[in-house]
TrEMBL record:
The species this protein was found in: Bradyrhizobium quebecense
Keywords carried by this UniProt record: Signal
One function term, GO molecular function aspect: molybdate ion binding
PANTHER family: BLR4797 PROTEIN, MOLYBDATE-BINDING PERIPLASMIC PROTEIN
Protein name: Substrate-binding domain-containing protein
Signal peptide (UniProt feature, chain positions): 1-16
Pfam families: SBP_bac_11
Database matches in InterPro entries: ModA/WtpA
UniProt KW Methyltransferase keyword: no
Keyword GTP-binding set for record: no
A biological process term (GO) from this entry: molybdate ion transport
Length: 253
């Protein structure tokens, strides 16, 4: 074998070992730790990209998968994945629920901590806020289409509500002063320095999103993809997810 051929074979092998993972931002806080350990233990290279599980921005996972972007492992809120599967845009070989995420409220660090302990308190806090931000993803969809309606304040807050699009976290908008009060998945809010997570929504108003991971039927390296999916449910990965503010699918309330 010539030296050139040997180099080409090595390059080909390296590429075959690369694993492309598209994940929801919900897992962004734990993903680096999980992927690093996986790479160290298996020698497989993980290439991660992320986007919201729903929405119409170019960064949204649904938009990217529907446009034909290649993904070996897809991680997103289960309802969004269900839509892709039913629409014929994504065919999973194996699928597992890996985490459960709750929605929280945050303000800029140093801001007076608002009361969100009850439905009435949360309603008043949202009415009093000068501006409110939420994402185009699963949490923001819930806030806009369910929560504000339950609280009966859709019209009252319409003029001061801001949808944070694409890969930008709500926490970034809070830290920059773009919005005073933000609502997003707790694990995502905890990523942003300069903000303080007030706490989760009251239990009677909480929306728990189940995060699913699935291996694509078109995975380039099926063995590596299946190996990574199994690793996502390992004790080490579960611990990383819990540290980031997530619950496990089988965890009791």
């Amino acid at each position: 074998m010539t030296s050139v051929a040997a180099v080409l074979m090595l390059v080909s092998t390296a590429r075959a070992a690369d694993l492309k993972v598209l994940t929801t931002g919900i897992l962004k806080g734990s993903f680096k730790e999980i992927a690093t350990r996986f790479e160290q233990e298996t020698g497989r290279k993980v290439i991660m990209s992320w986007g919201p599980s729903s929405g119409n921005s170019p960064e949204a996972s649904q938009v990217r998968v529907k446009s034909g972007e290649h993904v070996d492992v897809l991680i997103m809120v289960n309802t969004g994945m269900d839509e892709l599967v039913k629409g014929g845009y994504f065919t999973p070989v194996e699928r597992k629920d890996v985490a459960v995420s709750k929605i929280g409220v945050a303000v800029k660090t140093g801001h007076k901590m608002p009361d969100i302990s009850t439905e009435a308190a949360l309603r008043q806090t949202l009415l009093d806020a000068t501006s409110i931000g939420y994402s185009e993803g699963a949490s923001g969809t819930y806030v806009a289409t369910v929560l504000l309606k339950k609280l009966g304040i859709v019209d009252q807050v319409a003029g001061k509500s801001h949808v944070v699009l694409g890969r930008k976290f709500v926490g970034e908008a809070i830290a920059s002063g773009e919005v005073e009060l933000g609502l997003q998945q707790i694990s995502e809010l905890r990523l942003e320095p300069g903000i303080t997570v007030v706490g989760p929504l009251p239990e009677e108003l909480q929306k728990k999103s189940v995060v699913s991971a699935a291996v694509s039927s078109e995975a380039t390296d099926m063995e590596a993809a299946m190996q990574f999916l199994a690793y996502l449910t390992s004790p080490a990965s579960a611990e990383s997810m819990k540290k980031s503010g997530l619950d496990l699918p089988d965890a009791k309330p």
